[in-house]
Structure formats: C-alpha cells, structure tokens
Amino acid sequence: MEGTVECMCTECGISVYIQPAGITSGDMENARGRLMENTFCPRCGGALILVGRAGEEPFYRTE
C-alpha cells in the first residue's frame, strides 16, 4: 500500500483508500484533516477528509 492514503467520507463515514496525485510524504502532516479536492466518496458522493497514510494509526480515536 505504498503511497496509499486513507480518507473518510464526511457524509456516510466509510474509509476509502486511494493513491492521490500531488500529495508528497512531506505534505502529509499538514494535510491531515483537510478535505480532498476533486475526489469524492464512491458510495454516496460525499466529500472526503484525509486521515493519513494507509496502515498508520489515524489522528482521531473512536470510543
């Protein structure tokens, strides 16, 4: 999953794994929690928020 990032849909809450163009590893720390541009949820069409690199612990925690 090298280069793959995890995004979460703001509408339905599913995780989506994508390989976005234009995001470098240096940009990842600053980009977490931001909306992805021109990339939408395949299930409902909602906006996606960048969670982090695939396989890493996300910056949020659920109870």
List the defining traits of the structure above.
63 residues; mainly beta; 35% strand; globular
Task: Summarize the structure in short.
This protein has 63 residues and is mainly β. It has one helix at residues 25-31, and strands at residues 5-9, 15-18, 35-40, 47-53.
SSE order and pairing:
Blueprint: E1 5-9, E2 15-18, H1 25-31, E3 35-40, E4 47-53
Antiparallel strand pairs: 1-2, 1-4, 3-4
Can you describe this structure?
By secondary structure, the chain is mainly beta. It has one domain. The protein has one helix and four strands. Strands 2-1-4-3 form a four-stranded antiparallel beta sheet. A hairpin with a 5-residue loop joins strand 1 and strand 2. The radius of gyration is 11 Å and the shape is globular. The relative contact order is 0.34.
User: What are the secondary-structure elements, in order, as H or E?
Assistant: EEHEE
Order the strands across the largest sheet as they lie in space.
2-1-4-3
Q: Cα-atom Rg, whole angstroms?
A: 11 Å
Please count the helical segments.
1
Fraction of helical residues: 10-25%
Mean pLDDT: 76
Structural shape: globular
Uncertain residue segments? none
Q: What's the total count of β strands?
A: 4
